[in-house]
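Deliverable D4.2, example record:
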Amino acid sequence: MHISPKKQNFVNYIQGFISKNGRPPTFVEIMNGLKIKSLGTIHWYVTELEKEGIIKRTRGHQGKRALSILEKNLKITLPLLGIVQAGYPLEAIENKEFIEVPAKYLGDKNFVLKVRGNSMIDEQIREDDFIIVKESNMANNGDLVVAYVNEEATLKRFYKKKNSIELHPANPKFNTIKVKLEDSFRIGGKVLGLIRNY
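Output generated by the structure prediction step:
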């Protein structure tokens, strides 16, 4: 089931709140979090999403109403922001597209990139695959990241050594990128998952 971007944003907020706080948000918390001016608007969204089988209202702790997301009924979409290819700046997508992803990838900082090239082929990441990325400027050793070296985007495994950073490909035909002190470097996000169209 596809839902409108505004409804999607509403569901994303609830899911993110539950993940962060261990409980569903109140209507007032949703109103404040999404900067919606009216409780009536919140009621409308909840009622519509309940009719569509995406949200369920239940009685929670101490008899208070609680919202839950019925993920099996939900097909969510994330924005396709660009194409990542080793050695080139991130190629932005001009016409904004949305890619359907499993509900477990809900998140307001998540987005999709299309892969060009085969530098990660041994990790089963191929040309024209889509990767789901969580925006982040931090990574742990071994994380698969989208990184920028001198503003050129690359998809690699991140390793921080004592005095350097290395970005490892998963293809013996490609060299490890060793980030030098004079290089500009930043992490754009961590890869959460992969989508392949057959």
